[in-house]
Design brief:
About 70% of the residues lie in helices and about 0% in strands. The chain is mainly α. It folds into three domains: about 15-195, MFS general substrate transporter like domains (Growth Hormone, Chain: A, Up-down Bundle); about 205-260; about 265-510, Growth Hormone, Chain: A. Strands 1-2 form a two-stranded antiparallel sheet. Helix 17 runs antiparallel to helix 23. It is globular.
């Protein structure tokens, strides 16, 4: 059989698969830990005897730490090497997990979550960089499809795993489970990740760091405070958002001055990266924001347990697993501008069902719609990222993946906050029950609020002599509130088609740095 040049470069060899396996382990830990904690918030509330707004900071602190550390990841990867930095990130995350499990106060838990976030924030951009360099431009689509598995399954597996661990053991096990996984990932990283040569010539952009990281943290702090306050007018929201936005704008103006800025905005000169980044940003706001509320609908409007709600989300993951490998192979051969629009159409088709839900919508219809959305998800997110990184030069990949991760983090935070505010506003408009007052807050009890409480604690029916029709009206109002929120998400999702229309419809050559050899895809990966 005659060997044709370039054939080897199109295959995913064992060495590259080992690298992908290490990266996926780290990504699974980082992403699962965001969603697994969400189901533990009521447990934290009773364990530490604090308000829900206070325990919510166990999630917010993690998010803020992620946003703070991501900007420096690109520089640190060039300066210290991706392998060394990836192992440091794994160690920080694992250490933070162990300390979270020993927390005796909510303040200690929040502080340990910050340590977790500092490690977790570096895992995804470093993982994308390592896989892009290992695969080369001709195979990056398939490798990114592998990395996309934890990004899609995290929101599904997290609630299931968290609910199961809390039921059979205690909340501490949602953190303890990371210890053996982290140790295994560290050993595998040492054995499988290729050696890389750091580039110590670049100086650290201290001025940029002092503007961008605090700016992102302040902005996301304000956004994260929206669900608690319910209004932009609260000083806890607009003051940090304004201060953060001012620092970020100042950084944008400054970033074109230094030769090696903290965040290389010059990369937006690449049309593919700019279009893909905009499409990703709009998509994440809509899908991650509304998507986080799907389990809440099952919990609050349908009275399902945490574990059942997680299991009902499983069809979405199954759909994604079916199409993601196919989309990865197609992304290496067919321009994403020809495939992503069809995948987005599948997402919107499935999403539309949730804009019409009520208190008795068929589970078969909902699960079928989630499956269709999963099919679309598998062909959307990672192909868009592939399009952004595929034409970058090797020395630009770390900075490009850092840019995409920051946009994704900001988009998901904005989406989650905005959708939560819309849902809360809708629920607060429910009819108050005459004479019923919440003994803790002193506020009137609404029909929707009582319906949610009864769904979660059925024994309350015996304590509250309320006509059953009141509960039913409340449930219908809750379901309608979710439907209204999903309609907003659906409109934003449709807006994603605008930047998607500008994704490349023809294959383009990868950028090449001066002195970088041709045939980068065929450069062997050294594994030790």
């Amino acid at each position: 059989m005659t060997h044709r040049p370039g054939m080897a470069s199109s295959r995913i060899d064992g060495a590259v698969l080992k690298i992908a396996g290490v990266v996926v382990i780290g990504a699974i830990m980082s992403i699962l830990d965001v969603t697994v904690v969400s189901v533990a918030l009521p447990t934290f509330q009773s364990e530490f005897d604090v308000s829900y707004a206070r325990v919510a900071w166990t999630m917010t602190a993690y998010t803020l730490a992620l946003a703070t550390v991501i900007p420096a990841t690109g520089w640190a990867a060039d300066r210290f090497g991706t392998k060394r930095l990836y192992m440091i990130a794994l160690a920080l995350f694992t250490l933070g997990s162990g300390l979270c499990a020993t927390a005796e106060s909510i303040e200690m838990l929040i502080g340990c979550r910050v340590l977790q976030g500092l490690g977790g924030g570096m895992l995804m951009p470093l993982g994308m960089t390592i896989m892009t360099r290992a695969a080369g431009p001709d195979r990056i689509g398939r490798l990114m499809a592998i990395l996309g598995v934890p990004m899609l399954l995290g929101p599904i597996g997290g609630p299931i795993l968290g609910g199961w661990l809390i039921d059979i053991a205690s909340w501490r096990w949602i953190f303890l489970i990371n210890l053996p996984i982290g140790l295994i990932a560290l050993v595998c990283a040492q054995l499988a990740l290729p050696k890389d040569r750091p580039e110590p010539s670049e100086s650290f952009d201290v001025v940029g760091m002092l503007m961008l990281s605090p700016g992102l943290a302040l902005f996301l702090y304000g956004v994260s405070s929206l669900p608690e306050t319910g209004t932009f007018a609260d000083t806890k929201v607009w003051v940090p958002m304004l201060a953060g936005a001012s620092l970020v704008i100042a950084f944008v103006r400054y970033s074109f001055t230094p030769r090696h800025p903290l965040l290389d905005l010059r990369l937006f000169a690449h049309r593919n990266l700019t279009v893909a980044a905009l499409a990703l940003f709009v998509f994440v706001i809509a899908f991650m924001g509304a998507g986080l509320l799907f389990p809440s609908y099952f919990l609050q409007a349908r009275g399902e347990s945490t574990l059942t709600a997680g299991l009902l989300m499983a069809p979405q993951g199954i759909g994604a697993m079916i199409t993601m490998p196919i989309a990865g192979m197609l992304a290496d051969k067919i321009p994403v501008g020809r495939t992503v629009p069809f995948a987005m159409a599948l997402i919107c088709t499935g999403f539309f069902t949730f804009t019409q839900i009520d208190a008795g919508t068929s589970y078969w219809l909902l699960c079928g719609s989630l499956f269709v959305m999963g099919l679309g998800m598998g062909g959307t997110m990672m192909p868009i990222m592939t399009s952004a990184l595929k034409t970058l030069a090797q020395h630009e990949v770390a900075r490009g993946s850092t840019l995409l991760n920051i946009l994704q983090q900001i988009g998901s935070s904005i989406g989650a906050a905005v959708m939560s505010v819309i849902l809360t506003t809708e629920l607060n408009a429910s009819q108050p029950i005459p004479g019923a007052v919440d003994p803790q807050s002193g506020k009137p009890v609404t029909e929707a609020g009582l319906a949610i409480a009864v769904q979660q604690k059925p024994e309350l029916i015996a304590l509250l002599p309320v006509d059953p029709s009141v509960i039913q009206r409340g449930l219908e109002f809750v379901a309608d509130s979710f439907a209204t929120t999903f309609r907003v998400g659906f409109v934003i999702m449709l807006m994603t088609f605008i930047p998607i229309a500008f994704l490349p419809r023809r294959q383009r050559a990868r950028s090449q740095a001066p002195g970088e050899p041709d045939g980068h895809a065929n450069v062997p990966v050294s594994v030790h």
